Structure formats: C-alpha cells, structure tokens
User: Fold these one by one.
Assistant:
Number 1:
Amino acid sequence: MALARFIEAHGGVILTNKWIKGLIVENGKCAGVECEDGSSYRAEKAILSTIHIKHLIDMAPRELWGQDFIDGVDTWKAGLTLFETNYATTEPPKYAVAGGRSRRCIPE
C-alpha cells in the first residue's frame, strides 16, 4: 500500500485493530487518540482513521467542530457509491457476467 509506505518513510507509525473511543484535544486541536483497550497515542502532524464521519463527530465535544461542520454531518446522506476508484487505462474495463462472458463497461 503506497500510503502506508509513505507514512512509514516519513516517520509515521501505522496501528491496526485499534478501536478509538475519543480524541485527545488540546488548545482546540486534536493531539492524539484514546483507544478502547486503554492505550493512547499522540501525534505531531496527523491522525488518520477509517472511522465514519457520523461517529467521528462524537469523539470530541460538539462545540469544537463548529456548527457548519455539524450541520453538514447531520444532513449527509450516503448514496449508492460509498467507495470510488479511478483508473488511468488504455481501454475500458471488462467485467465477468452470468454465463462466463465479459462485457465492457463504457460510461454514457
């Protein structure tokens, strides 16, 4: 994974299977995280997580987020696409379909 290699090459640490229960907030900024297992981690530059934004907002006092951010989270609705990938290819991708044949997917 390119992102993992980049993070580690720049002194970052990657931890997996760490369930976050709260953010450590100092002077109005996130300085680290507290985990369900009792451990905590501090960061100088950034903390990356796969937590859903609807849960992230509960990790720190609501007044720290700002009303515009809270309103955006409260009104956000998931669409059909929750994960998007983009590819630079020389031809359209082919997908397997019933009967074992492949069909090209061409955007309209």
Number 2:
Amino acid sequence: MGQADPATYPLQKKRHSDEYLRTIAHLRPRTNKYGAMTRLRSTLAQAMHAYFADHGFAWVHTPILTASDCEGAGEMFRVTSLSPAEATLPAEERAKRDFFGREAYLTVSGQLSAEMLACALGRVYTFGPTFRAEHSDTSRHAAEFWMVEPEMAFADLEDNMNLAEDLLKHLVRCAMETCAEDFGLFAKFVDPTLPATLEGILAEPFVRLPYAEAVAILTASGKSFTYPVAFGTDLQSEHERYLTEEHFSGR
C-alpha cells in the first residue's frame, strides 16, 4: 500500500477500455471486471476438476513439447535450441544439432496421449495449455489457451453428448450460484443478456440434431449465407449460429 497521485495514477474511477488496460497490464487485475473474471475462472476450473473426479476420470498431464501434429489442421509453433544462423542449415544437419534430434513443436492438443491413457485407465481428461500458430484475429482463435479434453473407453456418441451437456450445465450452475456477485457484474456491465442465456441453458435439454436434418433446415431457411450450404460439406460458424441462436432459440 502507498500513496497514489490522482493526477497521474493510470486507473481512474471510470470505465476504461480493454485496449487501454492492455497498456497497463500490471494494474489491470485491480479493475472490477478483470478481478471478477479471474475469480470466476479459478472457481470454474476447480469445479471442472471436481466434476471429473466425481465421475471417475483421472487427470493426466500430456506433453507440451511434442513431435506430433495431433490434428493436422492448423499451424504449429516450432521449438528449437538452434541459433538463427543454424536454422538455415540443411534439414539433416539441423536435426543432428537440435535438442531433440528432430523437429519439435508446442502442442495443439493432448488428445493422442489421452486416447492411449484412456485405453489403460478407462476415463481420463487433460486440462492444460495448447498453442496454435494461426494468423486469425477472431474471438475463436488464440495463440495460447487452456483446453479440456476428456476421453472415455467404450463410449459412443450418445455418451459423449451426455457428458458434454452435463458438464456445461454443472459449470453454469456453479457460476450463477457460487460466484453470484462476480457473475452479476458481468450481467450488469458487460452483457445484459447473460442471465437469460445461461438460464436457458439450464432450463431445457440440448437439441441433438442429425447432420442431414441440419442441412435441410439451413437450406429451407431462405437466409443468404457467406458459405453455401450443401450436403456433404462442413457446417460453418454462421450455420451453427443460425441453428442455435435463431432456429432453436438458444438451445
């Protein structure tokens, strides 16, 4: 604790933009929003661990440094002990000199290791940092993020959907009941629709939709999508958002 000159102290008694707060990262946690976010994240992480423990899952720690491109769909960050000058050497020479004797990367997923462990332990999950070297400035892409990945032996798609729905509802209840004050701050200042959205998640079972039926609904919607809808193609974010937010009203 100490004196804070009100004329020069970066945090004032007003709302600051996230862009401005990024320039004073050492003070950002003292704001109401970032304090609430940190407490919520801590509570939800502990609730998730408790949920998996209660349902017979073992928490496993999969490698962060790996030679495996687990998903094969995104760019990976390469890890090397070589100097910039050595990085220009022929591939065989680089491999001889590098720390692992071969190319290594930051993991994009612990799934491959978790699948192997599930075959031995039955039910496992990973919860740790993953990395994607994708140049995409959207809310769905981040260079570093924490991801939970459960794996179950002798489970089918129905089991997988049941687990996902039950876990999500458990975490929503935890956020609304355990962190009511912090949750209320977000509902008041960040997203006024948040309480209704989360209450809707708890109110009814999730809609489970076969792919063919989803394509039929999208085709008959009359909406003009950026990515055309056709049977056999992957559904894009805009298709998923129409189905969940408009056609099924958030379910």
Number 3:
Amino acid sequence: MLWTYFAFSQYLIIWVGPICRKRRPGTFARKHGGWGAIALAIAILQFAFPFLILLSRAAKSSGRKLALLALLILLMRALDVIWLIEPTFNRERFH
C-alpha cells in the first residue's frame, strides 16, 4: 500500500504541478504505447490483487501462498522501477 501511495503522489505532483506545464517528454511517454498497459498491470498486480487476496483468511494462513504473493509483489516492484526509468530513454515505442 505504501508503494501505491508513493506512486499516486508522484503522479499527482507531475500532472498537477508546474512540471506538467514544461511538457517533460518522459512524463508523457509513460502514457503512450505499451507503457499505459504496463501501468495498469502494475496497479492491479502490485496493489489491487494482493490487497483482495489478503482479505481472505485462508490465504494468510498458508505460507506458500504468502510467499508466492510476496514474489509477485517484488516482481511488480521491479517492473515499476523499469516503468519509471525506461520511457525517457525510448520514447518511440515499448520494446
């Protein structure tokens, strides 16, 4: 939940603040091409899916399920870091 809060705060600052008015290319590259789909996948698989799974008592009592969920969250965190860095280097397309 903390990473989701940080990501939303950054998004809000970029789009509402004065940085948006300067039209920084990396900011807008994250919306186009495959990057928008990746942002949606990050939001769902890093926050929404784990949050809903952890509402279940059965999922919390199984160590294997918790380990798989933790691995999913860490993989999505790595993808989130790539999503923050890569679009500024390759503005034309997602590869």
